[in-house]
Prior knowledge:
Distance between the termini: 85 Å
Strand content: 5-15%
Amino acid sequence: MxxxxxxxxxxxxxxxxxxxxxxxxxxxxxRPVLIAVLGVAVVYSRRRWPIPALLLVTAGLTVTIAxxxxxxxxxxxxxxxxxxxxxxxxxxxPWLCGLACATLLFVVGIIADPAEWWSLNSLxxxxxxxxxxxVGEAVRNRRAYLAELTERLRQAEQTREQEAHRxxxxxxxxIARELHDVxxxxxxxxxxxxxxxAHVIKQHPxxxxxxxxxxxxxxxxxxxxxxxxxxxxxxxxxxxxxxPSPGLSRVPALLAGLGGFDVTFTQTGEPREVPAxxxxxxxxxxxxxxxxxxxxxxxxxxxAIAYTGSDVTIEVTNRITGRGDGTGFGLIGMxxxxxxxxxxxxxxxxxxRFRVHATLPAPTYALETSS
Length: 371
């Protein structure tokens, strides 16, 4: 905006100098220079000091009218300065400045040359000065309207976002309350019955059947209630599925579906069951890392999965081709999934290759029996 304003001022200054040289040269040699200097000063001061600029150009024009040689260049700048006053000042009645300016010039003209100024053509002075102010007022009203409209749109968007956030929070609280209400009772029953079952199995094994049946029924009730409550979170028209969440056991199928992409897969350690959240996070991390390698690599990647004592580690490496690293949201998602499962993800270039390394907890569970 600053550069544009400077270019406009430069263009106006050049026009003033050109008009001063061509239109004011019929009188004497010093007049064009004085008019050009005065005009350039008005051009460069009209934005920051519009009222002093109007006083300056009015004073110069008054002198030329008094000597019966009105300057057309200064008259042009009078309308331009009135435009700036109306546009940039906070005066409630900026037209009064234009009226006072035009009246002063008219009175000086009547005194200096009554025969020339006492005619209808002199009213053009009021039209020119008032026209500049009218254009400035129209531009100012237009800018104020656009600013108000933009602010209303911003406030409406902010209000809409706040309302949506409030509704989401209300819905979360409602679901949390319903889950607590419908699940807490059944879980308490299961806990009590499980304790009773442990006692009955030791003392009277033949009577354990009814107790275990109560536990089974309560468990079914919990599952049904959770299903009914969580069902409201599904999108309209979303088909239900009975397929279990994907895990590390689905990695071979994932690799088989990557057509045209060469993945070298190695697995160390004895595969075992890992916590469900870690299993799902591991699969999604492998999926996202291979997708990024396919998109930004050279068509080849290495995938290594290792089962250690209490962790499972995943490492995906591919050669960097310099085609960009995307938006970074995929890496953020992998880190969030790993953090939710109690693990971590590191990713970045290393030796001309891009490496994603994830560590997720996978403790070995032992079945405890009582003697």
